[in-house]
Write a structure and sequence with these properties.
alpha+beta
Length: about 230
């Protein structure tokens, strides 16, 4: 299993605050009032915004959102991490890869606005890929198998992890398609169920908070229910 982290764009290769962000179209989302960062200002020559993107490849860490939560037991040391940012057209660019070095078990009690209250996942040192090696125009379904609405990270299975590694290596023929069918074992039962909007909303919230896909949450709930019936 791997993890994909959705970052904001950084025109200094995620090593320093952006230069002239207001003039850089790729930085446009940072001026969206719904983006949870302080700043930046249109007149900035050096971005005055307060974001994790400015030092991902310096401090090698990323905080868990929402504030006050941790990454939980699904993140583990050695896990492969892929970094993407959202293009202006809604698709994604894969710009980096690392592995997990450690995970904070509790949110920090001290620090600045971008530290206190957050629990961080820490990476082994890495730099952004050379720009000619970036994998562009990936859809959310190619990355995580479904629409990626809220939330800043998602866990992925080994199959999608392998696809992304192959893309980074330049094996373009292996680009995952949106209609890729994941083959299930012959003894696996596939169910189609209808759920109410209220339940779907709750599943979306849990998926956003825990970085998981809804089908995984449903499978876990069924397993827990069956375990309770057996006891």
């Amino acid at each position: 299993m791997g993890i994909i982290i959705r970052t904001l764009y950084n025109n200094q290769d995620w090593q320093a605050p952006c230069k002239n962000p207001y003039k850089d179209a790729a930085c446009r989302s940072c001026f969206d009032p719904n983006v949870a960062i302080r700043g930046p200002r249109p007149a900035d020559e050096i971005c005055s915004g307060n974001c994790w993107e400015r030092n991902i490849c310096v401090k090698y860490r990323w905080g868990c959102t929402p504030k006050g939560r941790t990454f939980g037991v699904r993140a583990y040391i050695g896990m492969k991490v892929f970094f993407v940012y959202k293009q202006l057209d809604g698709n994604y660019t894969l710009w980096g890869m690392s592995t997990v070095r450690s995970i904070d078990n509790t949110p920090l009690e001290e620090g600045g606005d971008d530290e206190k209250g957050f629990a961080f996942i820490h990476f082994n040192p890495f730099k952004a890929l050379p720009r000619d090696k970036w994998v562009r125009d990936l859809t959310d379904r190619q990355l995580v198998g479904e629409s990626w609405l809220m939330g800043r990270y998602r866990y992925i299975d080994a199959r999608r992890e392998s696809h992304l590694e192959q893309l980074i290596e330049g094996r373009e023929a292996e680009r995952p398609r949106e209609d890729t069918v994941i083959t299930s074992p012959a003894n696996t039962l596939i169910l189609e169920v209808q759920i109410t909007p209220t339940i779907n909303e709750k599943l979306d919230r849990i998926a956003d908070e825990e970085g998981r896909q809804k089908d995984e949450i449903i499978r876990e709930a069924i397993a827990e229910w069956l375990k309770g019936r057996e006891s």
